[in-house]
Amino acid sequence: MKTLKPALLLPLFALLPATSAMATELRMLASYDQTSAYSREIAQRFIKEVEANDTADLSIKLTGPDVVSPFEQLQPVAAGVFQLLYTHAAYHTNTTGVGAAMDAIKVNPEQTRESGLWDLVDEHYQTLGLKLISIPPLGSSGFQYVLKKPIEGSPGLDGRRLRGSPTYTNVTKGMGGTPVLMSSGDVYSAMDRGVIDGAAWGLNGVKDMGWQEVAGYFSKPTFGQTYNFVLMNLNAFNSLSPEQQQVLLDQGRQLETEIAPVMDKLAIDEWKSLEAAGMQPTEFSPEDASRLDALVTDGIWQLGIDKTPETVTAMRKLAIEKNLTTVSE
């Protein structure tokens, strides 16, 4: 694990206010660079709304993946080195499959809560020393491939090596590709050097990372859905006043219900910008396109069940009952 700087190894009490006149400072660890769309539009939006609430009297300091690798961030937050984590759950599937399994759930934040799924996920993370604050969807659709060469024939990714997190393994293999586990920060150089032929990614942030300089195509249609997580160290959450806790939870819920249209518009704007920079859309064949949603969803459910069988099996059963997932027969 990456060694943390000594200044980060402060006990929880040292991060809390010395007097009631001071705002309570919380430290958020994020899996994305602060200039990325996922940080700007979600983490920083959440921070701004929380800090604007005078009732809470909270401040949040954001720290990025340059301090701790995205794949290693869950532990220091559970240990209280940081109080908040903004991440994608695929980065901590070595610990649990529950968060990653949320990517199998259709985007409907209110029904996700009403169905009991949100509470089920929250209860699980509390066993890991974490409190669930928010599960913001990253748009109404989830994924695309960024490719060096256009799609030709079927399966459309035959013979290609493609960056991905565990979320993408099943769909990449189903389309004929070979998954390569890699953080987003390594993709540019890996594509530039020919180590990989492309990357599975969400619908925002390609331009932020400059991938248009080393790749020529983005795939259509988009497929699946994906979520990020805002989690909090459970002891730190319990140490807050009821009013502060409620502000965090209310802003988390508001983020869930408001963010998908924002991210959808950003995706459309980004595709236009990428085309202006020389990239082009490339289409999966109709046969492949019809399989994408089920492939990614089946793979996500299996990933979750393999890691955390009891809870994820219960999630899947509930999601099927409430028509909140798409699975193959």
From TrEMBL:
PANTHER family: EXTRACYTOPLASMIC SOLUTE RECEPTOR PROTEIN (PTHR33376:SF5), PTHR33376. Keywords: Signal. It comes from Cobetia crustatorum. It comes from the Bacteria. Pfam families: DctP (PF03480). GO terms for biological process: transmembrane transport. This is C4-dicarboxylate ABC transporter substrate-binding protein. Residues 1-23 form the signal peptide.
